[in-house]
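Carbohydrate ABC transporter permease
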Amino acid sequence: MDRDRIETVGLRWLRRLVIAAFLLVTVFPFYYMLVLSVRPIERLLLDPGSLVVGLGELTFDTYAEVVRAVDDGGQGFLTLMRNSGLVAVTATLLTLAVAIPGAYAVARLRFFGRRQVDFLFLAVYLFPSIVIAIPLFVVFTRAGLRGSLLGLVLVYISQTLPVSVYMLRNYFETIPVSLEESAAIDGAGRLGIIRRVSLPLAAPSIMAVALYAFMIAWNEFLFALLFLVDKPHRWTVSLGLAQLSDGVEVPKTVLMAGSVLLTLPIVILFFASERLLTEGLTSGAEKG
């Protein structure tokens, strides 16, 4: 074998080893969490390092306890997941409803201060969340929105909207202007151009932004704790999981079952939209 062949084969196997290592580091924690969630606590105490669950010891009682209502002796995660789902879906839809026309306007329209818009949007992320948490807490308390899911949705929109506009603006700029001009010649108005031309072409990027907004709203903890701490019936699933982790009397198998329920919706959404998500994340990288 010549040197070029050796380097090609070596790099090919090195790439496979690197991918396998990253896959192991990524998948193993979730796999071990899943294993712990379906093992009886007695078996876990006897053999905590086991990575295989026998069919004889497989149990889903932990999941039943997690989703069962608190009045029935459970952890009430079904209510918490409903609250999180309502907040995450509403925040995602409202973010897209504002970000899509806003990003299109920045990409296509000419107005004073257009060049400074990107900086102003991304400047939000120059400050830690805790810096804006206290002012938001005061404002929402005076407005009577503290302790409500609507107030939490508005807070999440303020977190997801700037980067959503930035991501979508980059993609809208890659869409050839000639396509929109052709639609205008055929008699389409501005809204018709957006609906029939721009939105179908921007579907991958919109999907990526939607998944990003959903993940932020589903997993966020700080603002949920700050705004809902005195309203346990309105807690999100991240608050419920934190309560489980702080409870000494809660078995770790139940804690792992709650962690699986917190993680599973994001994993399912990611794999269901993996192709569109990959296209959306790489869209706008090149302009042409």
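thats it. Residues 106 and 205 are 16 Å apart (CA to CA). The chain is about 75% helix and 0% strand. bye
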